[in-house]
Amino acid sequence: KMAADTSVEILQKVLENEILQTTKVVEEHLDAEIQKLDQMDEDELECLKQRRLEALKKAQQQKQEWLSKGHGEYREIPSERDFFQEVKESKNVVCHFYRDTTFRCQIMDKHLSVLAKKHVETKFLKLNAEKSPFLCERLRIKVIPTVALVKDGKTQDYIVGFTDLGNTDDFTTETLEWRLGCADIINYSGNLMDPPFQSQKKFGTTFTKLDKKTIRGKKYDSDSDDD
User: Fold this and answer.
1) Long-range contacts: 194-200, Cβ < 8 Å, 24+?
2) Least confident range of 26-35, 78-87, 144-153, 174-183
3) Could you give the residue ranges of the DSSP H alpha helices within 40-168?
4) Which of 1, 151, 164, 224 is the most buried (most CB within 10 A)?
5) How many Cβ atoms from other residues are within 10 Å of residue 109's Cβ?
6) What global pTM score does this model have?
7) Cβ atoms 59, 121 nearer than 8 A
8) What confidence tens digit (pLDDT) does each residue in 68-84 have?
9) Is the peptide bond before 145 cis (omega within 30 degrees of 0)?
């Protein structure tokens, strides 16, 4: 028992030492930053302030421009022609090809509505697959729901069914957000190497970051096409 107690004490000391070292590094970094600010003269501080204001102004203008192009909300577009117009005017576009009779499309709708408000930098659309046969054939969409991820007018990636989302109807909005982050279609702040599936054990698979490049026209199984 004494040996065990000694081991615990040693471990505690090591941990305490680690915490102290980390705190010291953080404090030193803060001190250096404060010293840097103290040494700045008024002109330099004014210049720094102006740069910050400019950056804020620019960000606000960019946001207004996105909103004027229909970003910030999840919208249905009526036709294939509208699709081409919409992707032409926005750098990043997420478009959900849905069908009224497919229950899983409603699940996708719910999550995309939330993400459209959160990620104003990306345009979120939906298009009825039955009203867009030319586009579905051109993009080789065989499974509903399919979400096409379009960057600079080119379809770069697809989310086909729920396979990439943990293979469950109960996936979280965070999981879909992570998948969009993997495709670099939104500004994702989380860790791409750590997918936020609700329970990885449940699916019996270890998920890693997805390859950004997908082969267009891959033959997809239609297991997600159940009504």
Assistant:
1) 196/172, 197/166, 197/171, 198/166, 198/168, 198/170, 198/171, 198/172, 200/166
2) 26-35
3) 42-68, 80-89, 103-118, 133-138
4) 164
5) 15
6) 0.69
7) no
8) 999 999 999 999 999 99
9) yes
Give the torsion sign (CA, 58, 64, 67, 72): positive
Dist CA 55 CA 193 (whole Å): 30
Which residues contact residue 213 at a Cβ distance below 8 angstroms, ignoring those fewer than 6 apart? Answer: 157
Computed from CA positions of residues 194, 200, 201, 207, in that sequence, does the dihedral angle turn out positive or negative?
Answer: negative
In order, the DSSP letters of 60-76 are: HHHHHHHHHTTTTSEEE
Q: Which pLDDT tens digit goes with each residue over 121-142? A: 999 999 999 999 999 999 999 9
- ∠ Cα 158 159 165 (to 5°): 155
Cα 49 to the center of its chain, rounded Å: 31
**Angle ∠(151,98,181) on CA atoms, nearest 5:** 35
Confidence (pLDDT) at 24: 85
Q: What beta strand segments (E) does the chain contain?
A: 74-76, 92-98, 123-128, 146-151, 154-160
Residues 150, 87 contacting (CB under 8 angstroms): yes
